[in-house]
Amino acid sequence: MVYKYDFLIIGSGVAGMSYALKVARAHKGKICMICKTSLDEANTYFAQGGVASVTNLMTDNFEKHIEDTMIAGDYISDPKAVKQVVTMAPAQIKDLVGWGVNFDRKANGEFDLHREGGHSEFRILHHADDTGAEIQRGLMEAVRNNPDIDIKENHFAVEIITQHHLGARVTRRTPYINCYGAYVLNPENQKVDTYLSKVTVMCTGGCGAVYQTTTNPIIATGDGEAMVYRAKGTVQDMEFVQFHPTSLYHPGETHPAYLITEAMRGYGGILRLPNGESFMEKYDPRLSLAPRDIVARAIDREMKTHGLDHVCLDVTHKDPDETRHHFPNIYAKCLSIGIDITKDYIPVRPAAHYMCGGIKVDLNGCSSINRLYAIGECSCTGLHGGNRLASNSLIEAVVYAETAARHSVEHVDEYDFNDKVPEWNDEGTLTNEEKVLITQSVKEVGEIMSNYVGIVRSDLRLKRAWDRLDLLYEETENLFKRVKISKDLCELRNMINTGYLITRMAIERKESRGLHYTIDYPAHAYDKK
Fold first, then answer.
1. Which of 17, 151, 349, 397 is least crowded, fewest Cβ atoms below 10 Å from its Cβ?
2. What is the set of active-site residues?
3. What is the pTM (predicted TM-score) of this model?
């Protein structure tokens, strides 16, 4: 089956839905959104903390937000990208509110702002402790009510289509690679349909599921980065995997691990060992409000030093009613496993959380492949550099949805559909035995990445990961070529590709910088004591 759309959006989080709404507002053509599962299952939904934007001009300004972002990113961030996101943020907040997203406000109507690690001011807009779910709710309602947007739920993008599929030889040196759409697996008949497009937008989210423990949903398998890399597009900075310092330690819950928001430390939470001893004073003068890379490494070190499987976050010194008011969902979640956070410490440990790198794009969200844009977590805009500043990602997605929408709407009439694209060859069979092989390989990827390419790395560990992933790659590619395609097999393939990119780029960076920390090239003072 062949479908034709002017705008093909692969992904359904805040980036994809914002882009769809912005393009629909311009009335420039047919829009299709491909959703891997249901519309409501995206990384956006799981974001608790909030959205960073300068809104209180009495105490805050763009220069402060820019400087906080550059410091957190270890000055690897692209200053142009940082300036664009920070200065465009307030207008995008208005767009979100206009689409029906509710942020908490004070009695006088002003936004109730939080402060999070790495921020010098209170500038985090939020909705209790489930901001992502509220944003997803508001945008879903707006998207579903827009007749110009076709939503294809439970469809899986297998590959983007380039001239490679027309028989041309495409390499990383090919000067003009064009994207003509994507091959998409239809769950109803398990057939791969051809979606031709004038403009394709990759909004596939993160890749946390390549690790054993992650705050991401299980669907975050790095699909966008892997598809673009296989199409010979440019992918960058994949070594910078952000581990959230404080996921709830609850054995058995790993995909996703429940997130204990950064805002809880901004609220006054103190990191302690289970015996009550605080430890962040040994690592950074900002204590528990230091940027995430520093806090995650500190927790990792304390756990290894003391033989612990978790540390603790303490808010028992705060007013119980205030705690329950600000963090109702965290309170309820912890209470469900026997922890009253107003009286008990919260057991926490780091978990894979956010990919700072991804598909390299410019200020308009354009990738190195013509007619292909990338926005949201799967992209590398340059904003985050070596480490993402808390709550910068949701606003980044909406800002780049704006610039990508403007640019693509301006140029879409220059493109035509490529009717020479062949249909997918779906020969092959898949047996139950092969499904077992896929499941086992997924587990192996998680073990490899967590054990060898985690918070603390070394040349030896990275080499071992490389060798193990190479073996899995060969096995999986052989399987992919001879069996009928399935979502599980495609996800495994993408996970291996993504793990390879993280590992390769970690090997290539011969320094400890931002989120990439290696014992062979230590750079932090507390490692030289």
1. 151
2. 292
3. 0.90
